[in-house]
């Protein structure tokens, strides 16, 4: 097993507030834990921060431990003033 913390800061340089939604692409092998899966970020330099924790469970024998694996975490932004 293995775990890593990815700390990040998001800054909004635009004038319109946004909401950032972060997906959690967990699988049987990899668990992704996100402190805040949705956050509000003010415009005009507003910022927010968080941590993405990635946990890799013990690797089953059928996986090649020498192979490179990748993980993508999507951050989706939408204007806060849009009515859904």
Relevant terms:
about 80 residues; three-stranded antiparallel β-sheet; about 0% helix
Structure characterization notes:
By secondary structure, the protein is an all-beta fold. The strands form 2 sheets. It has a 3-stranded antiparallel β-sheet, with no helix packed on it. The protein has no helices and 6 strands. Helices cover 0% and strands 49% of the residues.
Give a nutshell description of this structure.
The chain has no helices and six strands. The protein is an all-beta fold and 84 residues long.
**Poorly predicted spans:** none
| Percentage of β-strand residues | over 45%
Distance between the termini: 41 Å
Helix content: under 10%
Shape: elongated
The total strand number stands at: 6
Strand order of the largest sheet: 1-5-3
Oligomer: single chain
Write the layout of secondary structure elements.
Layout: E1 2-12, E2 18-22, E3 30-34, E4 38-41, E5 46-56, E6 75-79
């Amino acid at each position: 097993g293995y775990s890593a913390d990815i700390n990040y800061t998001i800054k909004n340089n635009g004038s319109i507030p946004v909401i950032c939604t972060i997906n959690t692409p967990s699988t049987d092998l990899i668990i992704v834990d996100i402190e805040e899966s949705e956050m509000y970020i003010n415009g005009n330099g507003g910022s927010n921060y968080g941590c993405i924790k990635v946990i890799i469970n013990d690797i089953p024998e059928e996986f090649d431990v020498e192979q490179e694996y990748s993980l993508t975490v999507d951050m989706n932004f939408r204007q806060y003033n849009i009515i859904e």
